[in-house]
Amino acid sequence: MTAVQANAAAPARTKIPRPGRIVGLDGIRGLAALYVVLNHIFERAWPGYPADHALWWAGELIYGRFAVVIFIALSGFSLGLGPARSGWRFDSIATFAHRRAWRILPPYWAALAFSLVMTWCVLAQPGWAVPNGKSVVVYGLLVQDAVSVGSPNRAFWSIAVEAQLYILLPLLLLIVRRVSALAMVALAAAIVVTIGLLGPHVALLNDTLVKFTPDLAVLFAVGVLAAGVVTAGERTRSRPWSSYALAATTAVIVLIWVKGSTWTNINLFWVDLAWAPAIGCLLAAIATSRPRPLVRFLDTRPLRSLGSFSYSLYLTHMPIVIAVSYGLVLGRISSGTPTFLVLSAILLPMTVGFARLFAGAFELPFQRYRGWTPLRQAVMARLRRLVRPEPAAAAIG
User: Fold this and answer.
1) Exposed/middle/buried for 345, CB within 10 Å: 0-12, 13-18, 19+?
2) Predicted confidence band at 240 (pLDDT cuts at 50, 70, 90)?
3) Which of 58, 104, 148, 340 is the most exposed place for a label (fewest CB within 10 A)?
4) Number of domains, the chain
5) Residue 356 lies in a domain
6) Residue 98 covered by a domain
7) What is the Cα Rg of the chain in Å?
8) Is 374's pLDDT higher than 90?
9) How far apart are the first and last CA of the chain?
10) pLDDT at 280 > cutoff 90
C-alpha cells in the first residue's frame, strides 16, 4: 500500500479551527476604560447620584456601571475562547489559575500600592473612610466585596468580583460539556433572578445582592456563551448578530429613557441583566467580523493601543481624579459644564499618559513573559544594555 493509499484509508480527523486574535476586542476595552474615567469626572462635575442633574449631552455618562458590565462580559468571552476551541475544556486548571494570577495580580497589587500612597500622602476622597492596615490585607487578598473596610480605590470593587468569577468558570464549562452553553446561561440566570426576587425579603440573599453583585455572573456566562461562535457552524456564524445587538440595545435604552436615571441607578441589578442579550450578541457579531465598519473602527491604532493598557487605566485613574478634582479644581470653577470641561482637559491626558507608563512597568511585561525566569532574564538584559551600551559600529572610510 502506497503512502497516499494509507493516508486515504486512515480515519479522518476533525480539525478544530483556531482563529487568531479577535479583531476589535481591544478597541472595546479601551473605550470602556475611557468611559469609566469620564463617568468619574462627570460625578464630580454634577454631584447628586443617583439623580442626573447634567445637561442632555452629558447625561449618559452617569451610567458608569455599564462599562463594568462590558468588562465582565468581555472577560467571560476572552476566557471562553480557548476552551471553546478545545471541546470546552481547560488543558489544565492549574495552568489557567497561574496564567490568570500572573496576568491580573502584579498590576493590581502595584495599583493598590499607588492608591494607598495617593490616599495617605496626597489627598483622600472627602467623605470616604480612610484605608488602614486591615484595608491593605482585605484588598490585597481580593475580598473587598465580602469585607467592609476603608477603600483606597473605589474602582477596585469589580476586580474582586472578576477574580471570584474565575473560580466559577470551571463549573460553567462543566455544564456546557454535560448539557449545553445555552443551558449553562439559563441555569445561571435562573439562580441569579431567584436571588434578585427573594433578596428584598430574605436577609441572607439581600446581603448577597449588596456585596457580591451576582447579576454580573450572568454577564460573565453570556460572554462564555458568545465565545462558542468561534467554533460554531456557518449557519450560526452567519446569523445577523449585529442586528440582534442593535434591537436589544434599543430596548434597554428605551427602558432607561422612560424610567429615568434615578430609577436606573437604584435598579442596576435588573438593568445589568437587561444588557446581557445586547452585549452577548455584540460579542458574537465582533467575533464574526461584523459589521465591518464597526470592526475596522475598533481596530484602529489609537483604540488598539488604548485597549492594550485599559486594565492599567481602570486600576490607576481614580486616585488621580480625586487629587486633581478636590485638590485643584472643585470650588475654584463653577460646577457643571465648566468643571466637567476643565477636569476632562486635565484628567484625560493625565490618566491615559500615567496608565501607559504604569502598564509599561507593571502590566505589559507580564503579558510578554509568562514566568519569572524569562521576565528576570529580559530585565537583566535591558539593565546590561543601559549600563554597557553596545559600541557604535566603526565608520567605513
Assistant:
1) exposed
2) very high
3) 148
4) 1
5) yes
6) yes
7) 24
8) no
9) 66
10) yes
